[in-house]
């Protein structure tokens, strides 16, 4: 499976970084798609410092912003690269349910970041993945999740509920 082109979202820390690091070690070309340029480039430098043969690059992507997702896909297409694997790793836990936070597209931040953004990114890259799959039968979409959506698990973190039904609708409805 060596030599694949792989996008990993949220790859500057945690599981995303470890995934990118291991995949580079295995000889794949990995695009670290991160919203923070400084942290994303630092992650790339760290991977290359540990493995000088690593093919790691940074591209800006904020999965909580539809415009950023569209721009990322446009920039990726301009590179003319195939895409073999998309790893949707970026996510957040907005445990403070006393104050609502919204994406620039006016969706509740957790829903926008963990669900809607990755869905749009995957949809916009689906033809690329299908094309790679037809060529080598090994295209993949990997979605990393947590257990925090489970109300029983949420209690362990002191959170009443992370999936408030109101969060699935446009935020700030009073403006509509």
Summed up, what is this model?
The protein has helices at 14-25, 37-50, 66-78, 109-136, 151-156, and strands at residues 5-9, 29-34, 55-60, 85-88, 140-143. By secondary structure, the chain is an alpha/beta fold.
Provide an overview of this structure.
The chain is an alpha/beta fold and 176 residues long. The protein has one domain: Rossmann fold, CATH 3.40.50. The protein is 41% helix and 14% strand. The chain has a five-stranded parallel β-sheet, with helices on both faces. Helix 3 runs parallel beside helix 4. The longest helix is centred in the last third of the chain and has 28 residues. The radius of gyration is 17 Å and the shape is globular.
Descriptors for this entry?
176 residues; alpha/beta; five-stranded parallel beta sheet; 5 helices; globular; disordered C terminus; oxidoreductase; oxidoreductase activity; NAD(P)-bd_dom_sf; SDR_fam
β-strand number: 5
CATH arch. level architecture? 3-Layer(aba) Sandwich
Largest β sheet strand count, sense and barrel closure: 5 strands, parallel
Q: Report strand order across the widest sheet.
A: 3-2-1-4-5
Output the CATH class name: Alpha Beta
Shape type: globular
- Percent in helix: 40-55%
SSE string, helix = H, strand = E?
EHEHEHEHEH
The domain tally reads 1
Low-pLDDT stretches are 171-176
Note the total helix count: 5
* Structural Rg: 17 Å
Which fold name is given in CATH as the topology? Rossmann fold
Oligomer: single chain
Classify the secondary structure makeup into a structural class.
Answer: alpha/beta
Overall pLDDT metric: 87
Strand content: 5-15%
CATH superfamily: NAD(P)-binding Rossmann-like Domain
Terminal CA distance: 50 Å
Keywords: Oxidoreductase
Family: Belongs to the short-chain dehydrogenases/reductases (SDR) family.
InterPro entries: NAD(P)-bd_dom_sf, SDR_fam
GO molecular function: oxidoreductase activity
């Amino acid at each position: 499976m060596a030599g694949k082109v792989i996008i990993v979202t949220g790859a500057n820390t945690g599981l995303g970084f470890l995934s990118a690091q291991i995949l580079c070690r295995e000889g794949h070309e990995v695009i670290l798609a991160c919203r923070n340029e400084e942290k994303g480039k630092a992650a790339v430098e760290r991977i290359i410092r540990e493995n000088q043969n690593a093919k790691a690059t940074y591209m800006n992507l904020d999965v909580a912003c539809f415009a950023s997702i569209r721009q990322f896909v446009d920039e990726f297409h301009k590179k003319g690269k195939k895409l073999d694997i998309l790893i949707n790793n970026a996510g957040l836990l907005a445990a403070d349910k006393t104050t609502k936070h919204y994406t620039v597209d006016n969706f509740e931040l957790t829903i926008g970041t963990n669900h809607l953004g990755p869905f749009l990114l995957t949809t916009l890259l689906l033809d690329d993945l299908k094309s790679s799959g037809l060529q080598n039968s090994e295209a993949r979409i990997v979605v990393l999740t947590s257990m925090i959506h489970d109300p029983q698990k949420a209690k362990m973190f002191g959170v009443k509920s992370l999936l408030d039904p109101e969060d699935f609708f446009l935020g700030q409805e009073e403006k509509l």
